[in-house]
Amino acid sequence: MPESADAGGSGRGNRQRSRARGPRTAWGRALTGGAAGGRTGGARAAEAYAVSVPELRPAAHVPRELIGDSWRRAEERGLDREDGRPRRVGVAELEWRRRTAGVGVLREVLCDGLIPAGESVPEHVVVVADADGVVLWREGERAMLKAVSRIGLAEGASWSEDSAGTNGIGTALATGRPVGVYGDEHFLRNCHRWSCAAAPLTDPRDGRLLGVVNVTGPARTMPTISLAFVTAVGRVAEGELRDRHWTAMGRLRAVAAPVLAGIGGRVLAVDEHGWAAAATGMAPPERVALPKSPAAGACVLPGLGRCALEPLPGGGWLVRVEPEGSAAPPTRVVLDLTRPASPSLMVLGGAGRWSRQVSPRHAELLYLLAVHRDGFSSTALADALFGDPGRTVTVRAELSRLRRKLGGLLAHRPYRFSDELDVQLLLPSRPDDLLPRSTAPAVLAARR
Questions:
Q1: Is the pLDDT score of 38 beyond 60?
Q2: Domains (ranges, CATH) in the chain?
Q3: Buried b (16+ CB within 10 A) or exposed e, 317-342
Q4: Could you tell me the pLDDT band of residue 408, with boundaries at 50, 70 and 90?
């Protein structure tokens, strides 16, 4: 087993900073209520973990049901709240995660939004974790870094709920939403003198969860506005990814144009995520659901039928669609929820078979549509998912993303699986294992 990663480093390394200092210094002032610099504030805060904590007043807009649900998940996993410590990964694995995690490309953006240039934010530690909750980098004053190391908030530590119970990083990952965890809302007792605010980062290209940005500080000095700040920085980072995506699509379009000009039939040029950059002989879909590990040759793609994939120079794929009528529509859909960590959808029909893993949110939607074949209005679906019939905008946005991925499998007015499909639902043997991280009222009711 590799040796454990160093717990005391700040992760700053030799990173170069070149952007203006003003906005980032404002962040430190907003958090601490004063100047962003100075040693004394950070030194006092580092000692706060040894000071009794007064009654906390968490932000009113954060539903406390999230905390109760998270505690129940931790108790079901048998975590030790008295003496529990987060798991650690070795040095080699930590370096591999830093190189391969999607959140790594956002580190500069995150730090430009959070850390004052050439300084540390007094009284707080800023953490970037990957989609498994493993801390990749952290920033803060030396005294604060030493203090949080005592509770295991160090590079290489896993702060997922599976490892550390209720905490900002793990609960934001589990729920897919920004979360503040204040003082004794933490599951582990040694964290009760700390508060944290965390926001998940998702890849706007495919909805994939990339990781979390988290701010931790002493419970008695941690302002509830921290949650708004990490949420805003997460959105800026996602905007940066979106800009990079469209720049890459422009390059792909330039490469594909001369290739498509000399080809007949229905042909698409798509990037590695399936986003269509150009097409000939057809109106291009916004996105094509490529195989999980695409390779040159024949395949069956949702909504297109039989196709042939060819790699394009510089990345991306040329998708040649076989003539209309050469592939029958799918006839059977299997939603497999027997493996809580990896729900999947399989489609079988005259055009062959294909399967995809689905995100937790999309698994919730597909489960409800599979159980209720008559379908839902947007109001009814919002109530089943969120307990709030007014959240129809969110429901429509999620279903729009899902329909882009699954093509003709889903119908609307009402939202449902297409009527001609034979839909099979595979459920776990224990009701408690049905989408265990879901907080949707309809799913919670089905577990009882």
A1: no
A2: 22-242 (3.30.450.40), 262-321 (no CATH), 330-447 (no CATH)
A3: bbbbbbeeeebebbeebbbbbeebee
A4: low
